[in-house]
Amino acid sequence: MTYTFDPLVPRPIDRPTEVPLGPLTEDQLVALDEAKIFAGPADPADRPAWRERLREWRADARGRHGYTGAAYERPGAAWAARCRTVAQVWLWDELLYDFEQGRFTPERFLADARERFAGLDAVVLWHAYPVIGLDDRNQWDFYRDVPGLTDLVRQFHDAGLHVFVDYNPWDVGTRRAGDDLEELASLVADLGADGVFLDTLKKAEPEFVKALERAKPGIVLEGESKLPVERIEDHASSWAQFFADSPVPGVLRAHWYERRHMQHHVRRWHRDHTEELQSAWLNGVGVMVWEVVFGVWVGWSRRDAATVRRMVTVQRAAEDLLLHGEWTPLAELAPGAEEAGVYGSRWDLGDQTLWTVVNRSDEDYTGPVAPGIPLLGPGVPARGIAAFLRAETEPTWVKELPDVPHDPDARFPHRLAVRKQPARSTGTPDPDAVVVPAGPYVLTVRYRARETGMYQGAPYVDEWKPLPPRLHDARTLQRDGVLANAVAVAATEVTNAQFTEFLERTGYRPAQPHRFLAWNTDADAPVTYVDLDDARAYCAWRGGRLPTEDEWQLAGETGLLRRGEPAVWNWTESEHSDGRTRFVMLKGGCDYRAEGSDWYVEGGRRDPDYSVKLLLPGLGLARGATVGFRCAWDLPEVTA
């Protein structure tokens, strides 16, 4: 396949914008509105003119757009200007939710964040994608139907964090309730959320902003990409996602326009976060710490985590300097520093001057940098950061700064997803069960490329922005193995009537009853609203177990498996965990299909070779209208 772009190279729209050094024309001023980052000039002699052009653009843009800054005067939104570390976390991340205990564990999640990142300022509680579309539940259901979610938000608030909820404007094909604006405003008010992350959007429309402000005065809106200059007026925060910096570090356009506008650098698929961290440090902004991207482990190296710790330790202590001080980007440093790849910003407030400094090179720099005391140890470590402070009277916070050493270990912290192994069954199979013989097998599995990946590893590594045909395209993979014994797979799915008999005979009740057998009526239809554990319990009662996804496919490819009405996906014994995400492979497809967006789980009936990776939610939310199951049995070994 030939691509029209190189996914490992920034796209033109990701690249920094050059700033003309002469007096700016009207057209040039307007064109600079479209920048993500203003590129830094390589020649130090050009920098005074460059800084003057930046100031000229800012004054002109504020005048053209009638900027008032009123949104930043709202008491309820003041926190956003100091919110430098935000974590995006799936509600069912195993650091935040304990599947065995069936409860949220914010204390465990926050302890990890304190140890590795010096704590967080906010979290985005991710909820629906990438499981939405499996059935007709809409994005609001994936918040509203979570037991204890309000308590979780309260626990984060009690720990000093602010909480964002997520809005998916592309959710147009699931069940309809109120309009999106009404639903979102109600959700924000009910949960006490502090902000809304605008998934796939750069901005919210003005009427949207006003309605949310009525629901929660001081609400903070954060879009996913470059925020238009005119909307900095009413969006207190924005992602700096896939923003490529210049070789000589540049200036973030939105933060230069309004210092109180907080940006969060993020490159979700990158394994080296040096460039975005250094840009955040030089610009006085923050980062999005995102280690599990829709079920895929993309954890941060020890070096990058240490850089975050060092950054926020100083940023929190010196926040007045960073917010209100006179900012000089690409400030002059000691002779020899820049030649070694060292650059800095200068922040002046009263008698205090702070230099935030980065080292772009792969060698530690131990020479002179700036005429101040080092706040993060001597020198500037390779690919790292440093800070220096000069003051007539040393601030009290300097003595209170903890020692936060640099860590040079840049290795990626790999995780492997481990399969849960079923016990061998000993029961008698159904008479019409499909027998899969013992021995080796090779399978071709078809699937759709999603951000979830499949079994191991990330689907994208160091890619800037995966786009079709790298995203949502049809793919195949090969699976091979050996069946130690023959396996019989039930020809039909378990029905409501059969599952009712199981309940009556055993008295089975799930530990987590939420959504269990909700709305099942037709006795002959496949039982649904059951999760993996419910299905396993039934199969064990029958002396069997769930088939693995390979066994299901091998049986299905004989043409002898039958489908109930309506057709539903089938659970398989394919549960995996990497310690942060649990997932399973579904087989068979279903009659339901959510239309209107590629972000939905695909529906429709599927051939036996087709698989969908489903991330497992907890607290009963894995139960739904479109997933049932069938049993399998291990057959005795045949001896001569």
TrEMBL record:
InterPro entries: CTDL_fold, Sulfatase_Mod_Factor_Kinase, SUMF_dom, SUMF_sf. Pfam families: FGE-sulfatase. Residues 483-576 form the Sulfatase-modifying factor enzyme-like domain. It comes from the Bacteria. This is Sulfatase-modifying factor enzyme-like domain-containing protein. The lineage of its organism: Bacteria, Bacillati, Actinomycetota, Actinomycetes, Pseudonocardiales.
